[in-house]
Amino acid sequence: MNNRMKCFLIVFLGMLAAMAPLSTDMYLPALPEFSEDFHISASLAQLTLTMTLIGMAVGQILGGPVSDYLGRRKPLLLGMAVFTAASVLCFITSSIHMFLGLRLIQGIAGAFGIVISRAIARDVARGPELLQFYSILMMVNGLAPIAAPVIGGQILRFTSWHGIFAAMAIVGGLMFLLSAVYQETLPPQNRISDIKSSFKAFPVLLKNRYFCGQCLIQCFVFGGFFTYIGGSSFLFQNIYHVSAQVYSYIFGFIGLGLLFMGALPARLSGTVSGASMLRAALWGI
């Protein structure tokens, strides 16, 4: 890999990794306004966020095996094209039921970028270089949830919630163009010959107690976290009567805490065992 390709991949993979917070966190300051505009309850407005998260879960399960079978470029082009189209349709639709379906599709398409970005890093790098790529992706995963709601809040200063989906469509179109420029990193001889084999491996993981235990921890922790994400905008804006912009700053400040605490285990890894840190974190929760 020459320096030009490396710089391109760093920017490209970082933007792909940001698809998840782009689809969820940028939209958070607009939830109360969206609820009023569609004349729906807060719980139904929060369901639009849930549909995106479900889509992301399904999309990551599909995206990995599909990219191992077809290569990285074609699934990325398809995912970014569908994400862009879904964002445009979210901008213009007036039906809440259609909006829910579009948010599901948007989550599935955006998830292709999330999972394939990690696969591309594994294709092109090994050892310390791979660690560098993953470190950048983790940094984006920490910074994007802070920046996304702030950006969404600033967009609401000048337009309605429609403007947020217009911004998503622009980003999706940009990612489609970058995916078209991206050169395939998984040669045909390294691809799987049968996509069914990848899905058949999933039950093996489910029989592993250690894997299932870690998954359950992640499920409960992120369940609580996304409960906060879905309800915080209504709490701060409808009960405490702060503006969408102030809410975005509050959310970003809390995100900074998550970023710093996420870096703490890396600093303690040489002196404190992973099991001890995990137990302390769970007791703290």
Write a structural description.
This protein has 285 residues and is mostly helical. The chain has one domain (3-284): Up-down Bundle (Growth Hormone, Chain: A). The protein is built from 13 helices and no strands. It is globular, with a radius of gyration of 20 Å. The mean pLDDT is 84.
Topology summary:
Layout: H1 3-17, H2 19-24, H3 31-38, H4 42-70, H5 73-92, H6 96-124, H7 127-155, H8 161-181, H9 195-200, H10 202-206, H11 209-239, H12 244-268, H13 274-284
Helix pairs in contact: 1-6, 1-7, 3-4, 4-5, 4-6, 5-6, 5-8, 6-7, 7-12
Question: What's the gist of this structure?
Answer:
The chain has helices at residues 3-17, 19-24, 31-38, 42-70, 73-92, 96-124, 127-155, 161-181, 195-200, 202-206, 209-239, 244-268, 274-284. It is mainly alpha-helical.
- Distance, first to last CA: 43 Å
What is the class in the CATH system? Mainly Alpha
Within CATH, the superfamily carries the name MFS general substrate transporter like domains
CATH architecture: Up-down Bundle
Q: Strand tally, please?
A: 0
